[in-house]
Design goal:
By secondary structure, the protein is mostly helical. The chain contains eleven helices and two strands; from the N terminus they run H-H-H-H-E-E-H-H-H-H-H-H-H. The protein has helices spanning 4-30, 37-59, 72-101, 106-128, 153-175, 177-187, 189-194, 199-224, 236-246, 251-271, 277-291; strands at 143-146, 149-151. Strands 1-2 form a two-stranded antiparallel sheet. Helix 2 runs antiparallel to helix 3 and helix 9 packs parallel to helix 11 (277-291). The longest helix has 30 residues, at 72-101. It is globular and about 55 Å long. The termini are far apart. The relative contact order is 0.21.
Length: 302
């Protein structure tokens, strides 16, 4: 039996999981579903692409680091792109979401995120056009590893990067004062304010982390597939499904949920056809909401 779909599912799940971390943190701390989060992925990918182009203009053509399809310019550009995307998320909150949260109506903030999503996507199309683009057009030879599975060096590198980032976020959430404050705020906002937690600071950190991870997920899609303005919008339902499946507020849950969604989508493509891929996330989302609304690692609110 060909198990290539396992690798495809792990890669898709890694992208979904990184994006779902931002979704779950935003909802647990700010109490609203940010439908513009997928567009942060696209903005991060295009920001990284722009920085790569700027580095190329300054230093000329730079050979990739064998056996990868990219070199140090992309690595440097990802770091800059993460900062840009984090600042974009923070700026959007300051200019729009924070103003609407102050009015106390969550549905208005959710609808505003819909509008912000369309605006961000349209602006990307205006600046870069709707034509797909790529970080590299180099063709990599996939290496056989047994059981019909073949992987490329880029795929291995990106899976390792995902593991490092997830571990880093987990340590931030569990071993630092900022992370503990984020957890306290997500569990009881009123009590967190009473004990002196700087809520404004925690909100800023939440947006920056979510935006930065969305950028990495977008770059992963750009390396393995292609870059286009709708790339993040297409990931929106899988990200929300992963966040709900893992349990709102749980970083490990969001990642595990992403991996489950990714594996399920890849398995659907293998068994019943690619046209059913989009339906898998919706089916899993509905099943979780019916059977266990709090998710795998969720905690019932008191």
């Amino acid at each position: 039996m060909n198990l290539q779909f396992v690798v495809d599912g792990l890669l898709a799940g890694s992208m979904i999981g990184l994006g779902a971390i931002g979704v779950t943190l935003t909802y647990s701390i700010l109490r609203f579903s940010n439908f513009a989060h997928g567009d942060f992925m696209a903005w991060g990918a295009y920001a990284t692409l722009a920085v790569v182009g700027a580095i190329g203009a300054m230093f000329g053509k730079i050979a990739p680091m064998a056996p990868l399809s990219f070199g140090w310019p992309l690595i440097a550009a990802v770091i800059v792109g993460m900062a840009i995307t984090g600042l974009l998320a923070l700026l959007l909150d300051m200019m729009l979401f924070a103003q609407l949260r102050a009015k106390g109506q969550a549905i208005i903030v959710v609808m505003a995120s819909f509008g912000a999503s369309m605006a961000l996507r349209s602006l990307l199309e205006f600046i870069f056009s709707s034509r797909p683009t790529y970080f590299s057009r180099a063709i990599q030879i996939a290496m056989p590893v047994g059981f019909g599975i073949r992987v490329t060096p880029d795929q291995i590198a990106l899976l390792l990067l995902t593991a490092v980032l997830v571990l880093g976020v987990h340590l931030l959430m569990t071993r630092t004062q900022t992370g503990r404050s984020m957890q306290a705020l997500s569990q009881n906002a009123a009590l967190a304010r009473i004990v002196g937690i700087d809520v404004a600071k925690i909100v800023r950190v939440t947006w920056i982390i979510g935006g930065a991870l969305a950028c990495v997920a977008g770059v992963m899609i750009g390396i393995l597939i292609q870059i286009r303005p709708f790339m993040g919008f297409d990931m929106l339902l899988p990200m929300f499904a992963a966040a709900i499946l893992g349990g709102i507020g749980s970083v490990p849950g969001a990642v595990l949920g992403g991996l489950i969604i990714g594996m399920a989508e890849a398995g659907a493509v293998q068994l019943v056809g690619a046209e059913w891929r989009a339906a898998v996330s919706f089916i899993i989302l509905m099943s979780v909401l019916f059977v266990r609304p709090i998710g795998l690692f969720g905690v019932r609110e008191r």
